[in-house]
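S.,

Sequence below, as promised.
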Amino acid sequence: MITVDTSDLDELVELLGAAIERTPKERATALRKAGNTTEAGARANVAGYTKASTGELAGAITHVGTDLTRTIGADVKQAALLEYGTPTTGAPRRWLTGPAEAALDDLLADLAHAAEPW
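The prediction came back faster than expected:
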């Protein structure tokens, strides 16, 4: 016999439903905070690298977006080479995805808090 407990999914559906009811301003504020945190973390990571070529990467980090979307990145060759690694640059150095994943956790927590589920 197999038993499947979906009570956590039901709770998640309730939380997300409550979060969507929050004002667009609250959602935009949470996303803006996560974007700023991601960009700051990416800049800090790049600043810690010793290679001279990372100066170009640090200067190329940009962000664009709206109240519902946020894009952070850099359009220079070093961005992808460091993020994903190469035989020349070595193992991946997650200068962007590391801070983005951490900021995503905070964003979800902020949205859940804004939903006032408790």
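Strands lie at 62-65, 70-73.

Coffee later?
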